[in-house]
């Protein structure tokens, strides 16, 4: 069976309505150094620390410091809050109601809405910075960029954070090659590896809404480790690239167990944990005022 990019996105959202518990349990927290580096480039760090009850003059119209779009269960939202502190005015948006339920439980005190990036339920010029963490592949289109542009204040910034698995790792490469065999043929490679296929950037060419994207890519400080092959399978089966029919998912999961327990370059040595090395792939730009 094949699927368009849109059908694939729908399948992933359906999958996460029922598997958001596994998402919350097995996906890692975001690397704090990566989130901090992005927030720094988005110019919100100083703003929050200097506010002390009085908004800086360039911040008068912004209701929020940060909009976390495609926020999921709030894996990045909670790190943003941790970096910026309790005073930070954060709002989160995701189209999957189950993900937003998890986010509200995990990150109390943050405003959170259910909806897609293509229709952000916020007024014009109401946000200082928009952050997209590990989700831009879903809304890499002109409609979403127009909405991000609309809600940003003049001079506001948009940042993208991909938590990219490092394919130099034999484990990641082996699992990715397996997932590629089971992905819908029409599913763009960037759903799995946005560093290998960077065509998600093409949407920025449609209209001059933002300054050119800048980028900075570096390894996480604290990598995720998992205790056994079963947990590694649970993690990768939350990936949208493998949002497929139940029988296809079952076969993929079985093949993954086989790979992780028999491949000499991958299988777990006695008493060691399995590491999933990742990179923070950061991209940022500034709203153009037209
Ligand atoms: C891999 S998850 C990332 C979630 C979270 N940001 C994180 O870092 O864990 C991708 C998220 O994008 C969301 N998403 C899918 N389509 C979207 C759209 N059109 N607009 C905004 N978010 C979308 C999904 O519901 C999902 O929660």
Automatic annotation (TrEMBL):
Family the entry assigns: Belongs to the methyltransferase superfamily.
GO biological process: methylation
Domain of life of the organism encoding this protein: Eukaryota
Pfam families: Methyltransf_11
GO MF entry, a single one: S-adenosylmethionine-dependent methyltransferase activity
Organism: Branchiostoma floridae (Florida lancelet)
Gene3D superfamilies, alphabetized: Vaccinia Virus protein VP39 (3.40.50.150)
Protein's name in the database: Uncharacterized methyltransferase Mb3374-like
Keyword NAD: no
Keyword terms of this UniProt record: Methyltransferase, Transferase
Statement: the UniProt record of this protein carries the keyword NAD: no
Methyltransferase type domain boundaries: 67-158
Xref: SUPFAM superfamilies: S-adenosyl-L-methionine-dependent methyltransferases
């Amino acid at each position: 069976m094949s699927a368009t990019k849109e059908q694939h996105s729908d399948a992933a959202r359906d999958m996460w309505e029922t598997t958001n518990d596994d998402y919350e349990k097995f996906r890692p927290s975001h690397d704090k150094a990566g989130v901090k580096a992005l927030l720094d480039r988005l110019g919100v760090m100083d703003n929050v620390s200097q506010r002390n009850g009085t908004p800086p003059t360039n911040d008068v119209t912004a209701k929020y410091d940060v909009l976390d779009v495609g926020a999921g269960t709030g894996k990045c939202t909670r790190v943003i809050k941790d970096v910026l502190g309790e005073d930070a005015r954060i709002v989160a948006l995701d189209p999957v109601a189950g993900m937003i339920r998890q986010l509200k439980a995990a990150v109390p005190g943050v405003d959170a809405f259910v909806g897609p990036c293509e229709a952000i339920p916020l007024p014009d010029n109401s946000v200082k910075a928009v952050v997209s963490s590990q989700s831009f592949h879903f809304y890499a289109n002109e409609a979403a960029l127009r909405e991000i542009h609309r809600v940003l204040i003049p001079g506001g910034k948009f940042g993208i954070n991909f938590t990219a698995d490092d394919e130099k790792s034999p484990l990641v490469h082996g699992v990715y090659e397996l997932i590629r065999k089971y992905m819908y043929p029409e599913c763009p490679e960037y759903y799995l590896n946005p560093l290998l296929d960077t065509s998600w950037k093409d949407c920025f060419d449609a209209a001059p809404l933002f300054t050119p994207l800048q980028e900075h890519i570096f390894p996480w400080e604290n990598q995720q480790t998992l205790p056994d092959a079963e947990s590694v399978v649970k993690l990768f089966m939350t990936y949208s690239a493998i949002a497929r029919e139940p029988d296809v998912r079952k076969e993929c999961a079985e093949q993954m167990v086989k790979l992780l327990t028999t491949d000499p370059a991958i299988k777990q040595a006695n008493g060691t944990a399995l590491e999933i090395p990742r990179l923070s792939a950061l991209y940022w730009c500034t709203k153009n005022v037209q």
